[in-house]
Structure formats: C-alpha cells, structure tokens
C-alpha cells in the first residue's frame, strides 16, 4: 500500500487535486490556509484585503522581530474596513477552504495546522475525509496517530494551544506505528529554518513519546526549509514531508 503525505498546503488547491495520484490514501498534516505569502506578497488573505505594499510592510516588521509594530500596523489596517475583522477573515477563509476541500482527494486523513481554523472544517469536509486530532486510524494494517495544531509562539497564529493541551493529545494517541503531527518533535536540527533563519517551536511531548514508544515513522511539516529534513530517534525515522506549497508534490510512504 502507498500513502501520500502533504503538509503546509497554504492554498495550493491545484497541486492538492493531484496529490493522491498513484496512492491508496492521502494524509494531510495541516496548514491548508494562506494568510500571508512570504515569497509572493501579492498572495494570501492579508494581500487580498490590504494589497501587496502593506503586506510587504507587515512581513518586514515580523521578519525584523518587531511584532508589536506589526500588530499595530495590522490593527490600523483592519480599522479601515467596515464591520468586524472576524467577518472579513472568515469570508476569505471559507473561500479558500471551499476550493481546497473540493480539490482534496479521498480517502484522506487530515489533522490541523497552526494557521487553520478547525471550527470551520465541518462545513467543507466530504465523505472520505477523516479529520483526526489526538486520535488514531488504521491505514494499510498499521495504526496511525494524529496530533494537530501548534504550540504558542510570539507569532500568535490562530490554532496554537498550550503545552499541556498538546501533551494531552499526544498521550491520547499512545503507541502507534506512524505518528503524524503538524509540528516536529523538539530536535534542533528539525526546527531550524535555513531561509527564515530562526528556530520554530517543536514539541517536547512528541519527542518524549517517540523515545518511549518508538513508532516506525514520525511524520510532520511546519518548518518550510529545515536544516535537516530527516533524522533517527532510536528506530524511529523522523521525516519532514516537505513544504507542499513550494514543492507541489507529496511525500510517498510505502507500507
């Protein structure tokens, strides 16, 4: 059996429609939405609402670590729109989700990323889309565990949870053959993004679970340009499945 795995789709409905070709099932590790595109400032929800020039200003402030100024800029831009910001965000999010879930092959096993809005997913999932978070599924005779979302950071992305809540989800999954998460385990080489030149947050709870239970694979995304895309922890092969928005092709796992 062959399973294709994607993460960090960030709006690539075109490539997502082809991601299941040649596979028996698709796994998606989250971050379906594109709020801000750091490579193309004309793309994403922020640019649709405020234009590429303001997006460039916003990205520049964040890249320099000037997060309070970035939040002040964002607040001043939201104030120029009529109505509540949430209404504008959800309108754009729903438009993206409609395209993405329509393109999503079946069967697909999905968990959330840190930029996703889980409350909206039930509006768009179809038959054959299995959404799992702190839960397991049997695929090809193996047990897959799924842990979605991210941990809290200074970026304040929409779907960040506390360390305690994240650890509870890892514990609920228990011992599995394949552990699927959006964020990596807390291994420095897996967390450093060589283009952004920063460490992303990884999970100590996931690392402890891998060390304790030794699944065959630990699969994740989140870090778009990692210093190391693979490493071993005991007998567990840890794999960053790649930045799907940039690559446009899935990671293939033969079971």
TrEMBL record:
Where does the Calcineurin-like phosphoesterase domain lie?
A: 1-226
**UniProt-recorded Gene Ontology molecular function terms:** hydrolase activity
User: Which InterPro entries does this chain map to?
Assistant: Calcineurin-like_PHP, Metallo-depent_PP-like
Note one Pfam family from the annotation. Metallophos
Q: What is this protein called?
A: Icc-related predicted phosphoesterase
